[in-house]
Amino acid sequence: MKYLLDMQFSSVVTSPMLLLQLCISTLHYILASVFSTVCYWRTTSPVVDQRKVRNATTPTSVNYHFTRKCNYKCGFCFHTAKTSFVLPLEEAKRGLKLLKESGMEKINFSGGEPFLPDKGEFLGKLVQYCKQDLQLPSVSIVSNGSMIKETWFQKYGDDLDILAISCDSFDEATNQLIGRAQGKKSHVDNLHKIRNWCQQYKVAFKINSVINTFNVDEDLTENILQLNPVRWKVFQCLLIDGENAGESALREAERFVISEQQFQEFLDRHSSVSCLNIISMRFLDCREGRKDPSKSILDVGVKEAICFSGFDEKMFLKRGGKYVWSKADMKLEW
């Protein structure tokens, strides 16, 4: 099953506790997400039914959002830079080990921009630990690609199964409007460069696109086929209170939202693309229109943390959450 992780200092205990949060994705209709929030310890919590703890779902696939910081300013962002905190490496490893012991098979690292902390070295050490020490079948990353260097592939590429790069348009002017850019650097040129590195260093290449008012009428078929990713994950932009909508939000994403009909027309236009994977953005336990995190797995353990979720296993499987995610099993032609 797919879960989301985050971290933060406790705001109510006398000495700061380092929290690695297990934040669980609510999958609605054929919906899911790779985004999460930074969570805080709660002083009061409902009594946990121990029967539910014993029968808790195994966290097979986990998304770990270990940073909120990002060098891009995408207007629809659902995981904004409300804090710069990053959990210390050894505490992060401890949480990952707990997840492995509870049944995790796939870990996906995201942010924010995961290559920002220590110029990608923090991320590289986590990737290396998950593959070499925990021996996970699949280790993947979602990135905007702007901070990735070839030297990173040379050092850590053997331990990475999948690298997903976010790209919403192949028109640079559109990317600028969206905020998917840094200065005058070409996001598209960088995408092609990373695609070549993935081929060279034997890392499966994936593309994520958020469909919004600025790109909904585009036809990306030719460019996607040229890049030939193993998966093209297409997200519909939605609003989440406190992240990209509402008084406390750092983004105002209302102008990016499209209708269900517009999203369907985009999907119909790209129906010939065999690697297309459809996701409509839903995050954590969002049943009340906001992100509701669980307790920390470092404090209560994985099984009890899962019990605070709104996870829908059937919808996770229906939307293709379980797939061939180890590059050793993909039989790709390098």
UniProtKB/TrEMBL annotation:
One Pfam family this chain carries? Radical_SAM
Q: Which cofactor does it need?
A: [4Fe-4S] cluster
This chain's protein is named S-adenosylmethionine-dependent nucleotide dehydratase RSAD2
Q: Where's it found, cell-wise? A: Endoplasmic reticulum membrane
* NCBIfam families attached to this UniProt entry: viperin, viperin_w_prok
Q: Which GO terms describe its biological process?
A: defense response to virus; innate immune response; positive regulation of immune response
InterPro entries in alphabetical order: Aldolase_TIM, Elp3/MiaA/NifB-like_rSAM, RSAD2, RSAD2/Viperin_antiviral, rSAM, rSAM_sf
Family as reported in the entry's similarity comment:
Belongs to the radical SAM superfamily. RSAD2 family.
What CDD domains does the record tag this protein with? Radical_SAM
Query: Which species is this UniProt entry from?
Result: Sander lucioperca (Pike-perch)
Membrane topology according to the record: Peripheral membrane protein
- Give one GO term, molecular function aspect: metal ion binding
Higher taxonomy: Eukaryota, Metazoa, Chordata, Craniata, Vertebrata
